[in-house]
Amino acid sequence: xxxxxxxxxxxxxxxxxDEFNASIMFDKELYAQDIRGSIAHSQMLCKQGILxxxxxxxxxxxxxxxxxxxxSGKFEFSLAFEDIHMAVESRLTEIVGEPGKRLHTARxxxxxxxxxxxxxxxxxxxxxxxQLKELIxxxxxxxxxxxxxxxxxxxxxxxxxxxxxxxxMLAYANMFKRDYERFESSYERNNYSPLGxxxxxxxxxxxxxxxxxxxxxxISPTANAMDSVSDRDFALEILFNISTSMMHVSRxxxxxxxxxxxxxxxxxxxxxxxxxxxxxxxxxxxxVPELLRGKTGRVYGNLISLFTVMKGLxxxxxxxxxxxxxxxxxxxxxxxxxxxxLTEVIKTMIVNVDKMEAACKIGHLSATDLADxxxxxxxxxxxxxxxxxxxxxxxxxSLNKDISxxxxxxxxxxxxxxxxxxxxxxxxxxxxxxxxxxxxxxxTSTIQTVEQIxxxxxxxxxx
Length: 463
What we know:
By secondary structure, this protein is mainly α. Helix content is 65%, strand content 5%. It has three domains: 14-105, Fumarase/aspartase (N-terminal domain) (Fumarase C, Chain B, domain 1), CATH 1.10.275; 110-359, Fumarase/aspartase (Central domain) (Fumarase C, Chain A, domain 2, Up-down Bundle); 363-456, Fumarase/aspartase (C-terminal domain) (Ribonucleotide Reductase Protein R1, domain 1).
């Protein structure tokens, strides 16, 4: 009986270790890249005379059959094969026999996984860029419609100066454009092939790494085999890029939550992207923007996790780096669905122009214009103008008016220094004039906003 119990325990431990050691249940995500890399490797081996033409053709056809089986759901993923590389190679050998056993010549799973994973990341760099481009295009469309729509610009979440809503949308377009450029830069920097690095030191076989690089769409092979099999900078970069993009997503999500509240009522989101309360039927909750905001923490966690995995790893390959993929897969899926949903939320939101413009009459948004007028027209030191403006704001408060609604006499009576002020000041304090006065490059005036839109439209055509 003890022997039987020991055997059961050994079998149980073996199963646990298989589950602990295997990556097949998550790295199967890389099947397409693995097959793509293997076909390129077989073609190079054939060109170099290491495989015959017949063997290479059998391998390539067999790999395409495996791909079809996976995509049609016929392929059975099993812990017995540990990872996607062994699963594909095992099934290939079942299909084509002896040639399948020759495929792994002049490579290791170390360079194979580095290549597959890099191909995946490069593919996602490109596809996420396209999603960002579509989102930017939607921001530009909204901006185009609202180059004269007033909205209170805020600092510290307090009313500051009048903006136009198109300008506000362009601020987000600029954020996401930087994100686009980060993914683009990462693609270029990491577009080098590890394939042929083998375990860590290259291979004695007469291979052509430049050929496989070209076949797979890389610029050239990586320069050092040891670095190549242990490098995960490309994975860290996409995690950082995703984290930064999601941070930007969280910022517009927060504004959408605020803007759709009763206190603001600046926008109304489509019912598709909001839900009613379970007990309060009158409420419409901004669940989708809240989730967009919340998922940012998730991708931050994936970035920190991989940084922690890579910390202190000696060269070259270590099993620790098996932990490099799940976080990347998760972050990629998170940003893909987040960008898709955010694009639709912005595209379908209804802008309440009247509410936005009414809110501009709260907080004396054109007060700075009075100070600027005194500096420019009266040659007054700014600090003196600042304190005089405070008196005018106090006067407006006492009359329960916004500073933009004061008459010339009311302005003059606020401070002795203003008793002879030009009637032009009334025009300067007008909210729309205040917005348009900020006509410096990058400013909020309608003229500058339209120019910024034109620049983006040109960029979108080239990107």
